[in-house]
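4.2 Preliminary Data

To establish feasibility before requesting continued support, the project team ran the inverse folding procedure on a target of 194 residues. The structure was first converted into the token representation described in Section 3, and no sequence information of any kind was made available to the design step. The complete token record follows.
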């Protein structure tokens, strides 16, 4: 079982990243939250979960230990597999997710793409007593490549009701043009009105 990987980001695509370590390229499935912290050619550290099935071996990577912990909790819920757990973590940050579970906020969970009301209710029911208090105040990822401007823009847009997964590409595009957080947010919001 792998705990983490340190290496160079060689390729980034939707939901996947390739990290080169000791001459090997590891294809790792990640949430859009983790993806927002990664940059091509930069050194990174991702916490890993390895899933071994009869016909498949997959790696899942996380920018923080808290995100990995929440992923494992989500996959323990009946009917929630690794892909759905990543979709949840792409649609809401760990702190907000933990808060929604603790408060029994099924409405917030049901708004996440891929999660219906029944699945949201099951997540709350099965995890309400099982989430950790420290997940309510999640810190910054251990990656040295964190782009605080991108992350702050995503958090701000998420607080405005825009799913992180929907905002990610637009934020990256706007970030390439400016370092100004307010300008990035304005650009993304203008793009949505079109």
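Position-by-position output of the design step:
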């Amino acid at each position: 079982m792998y705990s983490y990987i340190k290496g160079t980001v060689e390729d980034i695509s939707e939901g996947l990243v390739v990290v080169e370590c000791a001459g090997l390229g590891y294809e790792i499935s990640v949430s859009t939250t983790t993806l927002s912290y990664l940059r091509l050619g930069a050194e990174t550290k991702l916490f890993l979960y390895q899933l071994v099935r009869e016909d498949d071996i997959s790696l899942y990577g996380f920018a923080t230990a808290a995100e990995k912990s929440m992923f494992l909790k989500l996959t323990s819920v009946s009917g929630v597999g690794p892909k759905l757990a990543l979709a949840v973590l792409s649609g809401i940050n760990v702190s907000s997710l933990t808060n929604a579970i603790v408060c029994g906020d099924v409405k917030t969970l049901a708004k996440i793409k891929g999660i219906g009301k029944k699945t949201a209710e099951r997540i709350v029911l099965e995890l309400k007593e099982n989430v950790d208090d420290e997940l309510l105040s999640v810190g910054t990822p251990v990656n040295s490549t964190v782009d605080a401007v991108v992350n702050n823009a995503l958090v701000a847009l998420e607080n405005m009701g825009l799913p992180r997964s929907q905002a990610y590409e637009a934020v990256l595009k706007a970030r390439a043009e400016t370092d100004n957080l307010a300008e990035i947010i304005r650009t993304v919001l203008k793009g949505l009105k079109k």
